[in-house]
């Protein structure tokens, strides 16, 4: 026993002697090397396994119409990024797309193989959504899941997107105008310009919009480089304006020149062809001869574009007619036709359109029976006097309940000596003013017919400049006319004050005064008093004339003393 104890102590002594060398030795674990000291517990540590961490970010819905909806008949996309924020490899990443509620006509990519994603790497993903034209109004609730082979999945993405049925486009010729380069008549072998305004009046985009011009006769010749034009995508309400130049050769024998306008779009279903025509020798001096009226589209909230004025369309309708209302309308525009010694600049621009549209408002809005409205454009002296006598007799024959209205657009001139104003027929020159019609004679003739209400509306001035200066297209300013006292039940609306000009409103293809007169009738549907109308005209004509023509034009209202206390409450309707 004693010997065993000695041996044990000896072994311990030897082990302790060797311990410095053992301290320098290492023990390797599975992946970690640690220095240990004898006499202490030996602990082996292991590094944690690297893992991926997937996230979905930067999600965006993209649709061609940019209305944030899935429209019928379009392809849209859900785009997003997948990023691996972890330190480990994301293996065999897959995108799974599902709908909470399946929707008729909606197809989409259900599975996308993304593959491996390295740490800190990003992958772009695009999910295509294709809808049929029969897709309903609904809410598509998408769930997008990103899975990984070792089940290190991303949090799902949920996205709700509205759907709506196919919104068809509707391509039409909204307006078309023939003109010549210098004005005048359509003549063979000379250029003819057809200005066309194409518009999408539908609710959806028109894709691959095209327009072509075709002739049924071989003697019609295109003068430009092509007869076909392409516009790509046209949004709802969008317009495209173009000029098509052509001519007809002398071998052409037909009295009119038809032009077929063919419009196409990608589906082949939502475009409407048109045919327009112009007569050989047709007079196009004003270069605003509208050959196509705008197509009525009351069910569509798109405002129809036009080459003509806003007051020439959407005229309020009043089905009630008043048999006691009578009117005479004169629009004297072309003076050159009857007076060879004056130039076309001395015509009165847009007077014909003024007269024609004024009649439309009288009949459609103000309740005038069409048979009670006389109209004459480019009236000569005999024609004007005949019409004035005829309308006076009609009102007189109807009795004291009659209402008589006279509208005139054209030239007015004063006598050089007396300054008495005259209305100028198209065959009367400034050097022969006594052949014209004295304004005071018209007022006297009307006041004697016995009508209870007489209204004169004059888009002319009477300051023309006397003998030798000629007629001016701007209805010019030279001499202040004499104002004679009115008698009877008469109110006179005049386009100007004093020595001002009655000016055109070229953009709207009307006289400035007539445009605002019609605009107020359009806005009020004719339910407006004379005083309200007067205030409106003075303010708006005066301001717009300064903006557009840079000249003053202030309308005036002249009132007979017999109605000075009551005229303000009169109404046109």
Describe the structure.
The chain has three domains: 54-164, Immunoglobulins (Immunoglobulin-like); 171-308, Sandwich (Immunoglobulin-like); 324-569, 3-Layer(aba) Sandwich (Rossmann fold). The model is unreliable at 1-7, 21-38, 285-304, 465-470 and 472-479 (pLDDT under 50). The protein is 17% helix and 33% strand. It has helices spanning 2-23, 351-364, 381-398, 439-447, 512-524, 530-548; strands spanning 26-28, 33-35, 54-62, 69-71, 75-84, 90-99, 106-108, 111-117, 122-131, 138-147, 157-164, 171-179, 192-200, 206-214, 220-222, 228-234, 239-248, 256-264, 274-279, 289-290, 325-331, 373-377, 403-409, 412-414, 421-423, 437-438, 453-459, 490-494, 504-505, 510-511, 556-559. Helix 2 packs parallel to helix 5 and helix 5 packs across helix 6. It has 573 residues and is of the alpha+beta class. The relative contact order is 0.07. The strands form eight sheets. Strands 22-21-23-27-28-31 form a six-stranded mixed sheet, with helices on both faces. Strands 4-11-10-6-8 form a five-stranded mixed sheet, with no helix packed on it. It is built from six helices and 31 strands.
């Amino acid at each position: 026993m004693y010997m065993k104890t000695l041996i044990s102590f000896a072994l311990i002594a030897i082990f302790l002697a060797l311990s410095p060398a053992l301290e320098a030795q290492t023990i390797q674990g599975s992946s970690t090397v640690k220095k240990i000291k004898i006499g202490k517990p030996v602990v082996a540590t292991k590094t944690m396994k690297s893992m991926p961490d997937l996230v979905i970010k930067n999600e965006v819905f993209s649709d061609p119409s940019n209305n944030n909806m899935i429209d019928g008949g379009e392809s849209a996309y859900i785009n997003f990024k997948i990023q691996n924020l972890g330190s480990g490899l994301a293996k065999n990443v897959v995108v799974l797309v599902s709908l909470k509620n399946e929707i008729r006509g909606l197809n989409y990519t259900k599975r996308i193989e993304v593959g491996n994603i390295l740490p800190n790497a990003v992958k772009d993903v695009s999910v295509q959504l294709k809808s049929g034209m029969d897709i309903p109004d609904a809410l598509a609730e998408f769930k997008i899941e990103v899975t990984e082979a070792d089940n290190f999945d991303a949090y799902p993405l949920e996205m709700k997107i509205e759907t709506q049925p196919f919104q068809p486009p509707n391509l039409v010729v909204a307006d078309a105008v023939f003109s010549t380069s210098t004005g005048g008549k359509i003549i063979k072998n000379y250029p003819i310009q057809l200005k066309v305004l194409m518009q999408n009046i539908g609710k959806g985009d028109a894709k691959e919009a095209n327009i072509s011009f075709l002739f049924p006769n071989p003697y019609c010749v295109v003068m430009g480089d092509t007869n076909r034009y392409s516009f790509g995508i046209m949004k709802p309400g969008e317009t495209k304006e173009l000029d098509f130049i052509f001519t007809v050769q002398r071998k052409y024998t037909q009295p009119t020149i038809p032009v077929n306008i063919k419009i196409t779009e990608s589906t082949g279903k939502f475009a409407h062809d048109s045919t327009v025509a112009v007569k050989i020798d047709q007079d196009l001096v004003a270069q605003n001869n509208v050959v196509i009226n705008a197509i009525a589209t009351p069910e569509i909230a798109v405002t129809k574009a036009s080459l003509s004025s806003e007051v020439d369309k959407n005229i309020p309708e009043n089905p009630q007619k008043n048999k006691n209302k009578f009117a005479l309308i004169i629009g004297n525009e072309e003076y050159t036709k009857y007076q060879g010694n004056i130039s076309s600049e001395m015509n009165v621009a847009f007077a014909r359109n003024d007269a024609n549209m004024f009649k439309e408002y009288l009949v459609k809005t103000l309740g005038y029976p069409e048979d009670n409205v006389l109209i004459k454009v480019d009236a000569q002296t005999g024609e004007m006097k005949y019409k004035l006598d005829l309308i006076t007799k009609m009102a007189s024959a109807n009795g004291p309940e009659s209402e008589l209205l006279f509208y005139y657009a054209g030239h007015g001139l004063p006598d050089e000596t007396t300054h008495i104003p005259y209305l100028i027929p198209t065959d009367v020159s400034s050097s022969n003013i006594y052949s014209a019609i004295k304004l005071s004679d018209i007022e006297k003739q009307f006041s004697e017919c016995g009508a209870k209400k007489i209204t004169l509306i004059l888009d002319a001035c009477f300051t023309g400049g006397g003998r030798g200066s000629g007629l001016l297209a701007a209805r010019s300013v030279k001499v202040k006319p004499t104002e004679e006292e009115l008698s009877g039940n008469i109110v006179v609306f005049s386009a100007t004050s004093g020595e001002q000009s009655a000016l055109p409103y070229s953009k709207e293809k009307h006289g400035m005064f007539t445009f605002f007169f019609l605009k107020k009738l359009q806005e009020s549907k004719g339910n407006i008093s004379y005083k309200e109308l007067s205030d409106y005209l003075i303010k708006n004509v005066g301001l717009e004339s300064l903006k557009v023509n840079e000249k003053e034009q202030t309308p005036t209202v002249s009132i007979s003393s017999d109605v000075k206390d009551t005229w303000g409450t009169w109404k046109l309707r």
